[in-house]
Amino acid sequence: MSAPRSLAEERATRIRDHLETAAAGLQEAAGLVAEAYQARDWEVLGYESWAAYCTGEFALARLKLPEGDRERIIEAFAAAGLSSRAVAAALGTSQSTAARELRTDRTPPPGSAARWSPAAAAVESNEAPGRGRHMVSDLYR
Hints:
Number of domains: 1
Structural class: mainly alpha
Shape: elongated
Largest sheet: none
Radius of gyration: 18 Å
Low-confidence stretches: 114-141
Distance between the termini: 42 Å
C-alpha cells in the first residue's frame, strides 16, 4: 500500500529541507572549529590540549563525513592553520588520515582539475593561513 501523493511530496520536501540545513550547519560548524583553534579555546576552557578539548566537547557530536566533504573540510582547516594532529582531533579521525589528506597532490595534473582547491593552493604556497583570503566558507561558494 502506497502513501498518498500529498504525503510523499511533503516527505520529499522535508528531506530536502533537512539536507540543506545539514549542509549549512556543516559549513558553519567547520568555520567555528577553525575559529576555536585559532583562538585557542581549549586553553580558555581549561583543557590540556586541542585533542582533549575536541574529545571533551564534541566526542558524541562528531560526524563521519563523506570522503569529498572530509577532504574539503581538511583543506579548509589546513588553510586556517590547523596541523594534521589538530585536524584529526577535530574530525575524530586518525592523524595519519588527516596527514595523508594534507599530503595529497594539490596541483592538478595537466588537463585535469582533480583534487585542487584555493585552500589547498594556499597551503602549498605558504600563504598566510586564516587571514581572510582562503577561509572555510570559500570552499562552499
